[in-house]
Design a protein that fits this description.
2 domains; eight-stranded parallel barrel; two-stranded antiparallel ribbon; about 50% helix; about 10% strand; globular; binds iron/sulfur cluster
Length: about 425
Amino acid sequence: MQNNKFQRQMVLMHALIRQCRSGLPPELEEIALAEGLSPGRMADAIARGHIVIPANPRRTIRPVAIGAGCRVKVNVNIGTSQGRCDPELEMVKAEAAIGAGADALMDLSTAGDLKDIRRRILSLPIAVGTVPIYEAVRRAGSAQDLTADLLFSVIREQCREGVDFMTLHCGVNRDALQALNLDPRVMGVVSRGGAFHIAWMVATGEENPLYAEYDYLLEILAEADVTLSLGDGMRPGALIDSGKLAKMTEYLTLGRLSHRAQNADVQRMIEGPGHMPINEVAWNVKAIKEVTENAPLYLLGPLVTDIATGYDHVVGAIGGAIAASAGADFLCMVSPAEHLALPNKEEIIEGTRVARIAAHVGDIVRRGGASESPEEIRMAYARRDLDWDAQYAEMLFPEYAQQIHDRDSERETCSMCGDLCAVKMVRDLLQKKE
Ligand code: SF4
């Protein structure tokens, strides 16, 4: 588990944005320093909405900073489904994710005793997010039977229970629906939350309550100091859909909503942007950043091919690394089971590790390149010197690497080239010459 030293009781600190206008609360100074930022700079970035720290004051967690100038963070989704409802297993997966380096968890449960599952996940010491419409639809029986009152009451309850950030699909409004009808997509809508809102709007003919009553939503979140994650209900679900109108329509709406959240002292981040070809990733990141005034950006993927199913964690990491190097701040783990099944524990661990690689690749670029990445520099010297202990000290996954290296009992070099080790050969030659 990373950054254990920051685990602490969060004191009640309503409206962190407001507090940061006059400086960083002392209990967050260590977080700033760990990110390589001065407390003053971090306070300024939080006050401007360029960094968020999702941490509900009602819980004790190890908070993390997400946004400009911070290390890229990794979220892991867990949660039951109707297809597989085993709350015990979800706890095992949650703990495995934390062990593999997750910075945050999202509970996406849709089956079983949702409150009890959430209570158990909220007992873990890291930031936890939810998608309240899942529980609201479960309680209503169907998306069509949902009411605005029920949805807002679930949001208020989850705020009180200690949820740190919430995905709320406020941008799935009539404009987005009209764009979807005007410029249809092969995959329609692939966001579960987005689909619920579309179904409700079509059934009732009314506007999405999260959009229509957005000021009221902001009041609830500001009072609870819960971070708003503006959901990407219109994200494309296939590469062929990436250029369609609905996604861009939602971006513009999220830009306006982001601005209003910031003015209401609500910490907010933006979600996006779905499946797309690799050459579109960077400009999508930059476009979202531009219209949202550089709000922290939280991504699932992006998935840069649709036909590598079973390896979607790799596909997501390729997109995630490009996105993080272009400015995305928070990557959601994609597991090898994506598009196939609810992931098991091993798939959660694998997906989390691969997402951490993508985050680190992005960090190298965000920090200014290899010359500003001390661990990369130390690794180069350790490899040159065939110093295996020094190499393990820099690796993201040293135990796994050591298992592979040790299996052929090679000590000084490795069994890849054995006595023809290029590194050793050139080093010995140069040493002899000297
Ligand atoms: S044996 Fe080959 S792969 Fe292994 S350290 Fe030497 S050059 Fe690298």
